[in-house]
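Supplementary Text 2. Reproducibility record for the structural model of the 210-residue chain.

All settings were left at their defaults, and a single model was retained for analysis rather than an ensemble. We include the record here because the model underlies the residue-level annotations in Supplementary Table 4.
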Amino acid sequence: MPLIRSLRAAAAVAVVALVATACGGARDLSEEKPTALQNEWWSWVMSAPVHRHPVTDTTGEFCAEAQPDDLWFLAGTFGETGGTVTRTCQIPAGRPIVVPAVNILVPSGAVFEEGPVAVLGCVEVQGQLSGSVALDGEELVLDQIDGAQINVGSGVMGNPLTRDLSGIDGAGCGLWARIEPLSPGEHTLAIRGEAPGFSTAVDYVLTVTE
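Retained model, structure tokens:
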């Protein structure tokens, strides 16, 4: 993903599920603004170095890396694997899940025909995105996010976006799914995303622990 490595890589990571729940003690995301949730997700992406990162992970070994304590983030890939990645992941019961199908961050200052307006560029690309998220074989309804302002102050050294402590700033577009806390036991989650010159595919095997 220029600030994020390239627009192509940015598209790869995103398809996020924004979730609403009424389970006791679990975070209720239904009344939260999509912009705030996107900022949290991008902050999560910048919270681990590339060698142990949930987005570059090919097995699910780093699924729990840097997770918040009131929800659970999942991700696609940076589109570098060329095939379907299968990840196995344990999730504590009661956590709503936020996971992207396809998502792009256009850095502030990116120049398009209309000028250096990140939101314009994001919305322009949005029409070329497609994706799906299927839970236990049932396709979920995705939220379309157009031009949400993204501002993450800093990341850890070696993170896959900036590689250093610098932050990111721009406009976020994409298709996001919302998933309520899952029942204990095993579930499958299939993520597919397409953008110009890029595709991502991840199959999760999720075990929700009591």
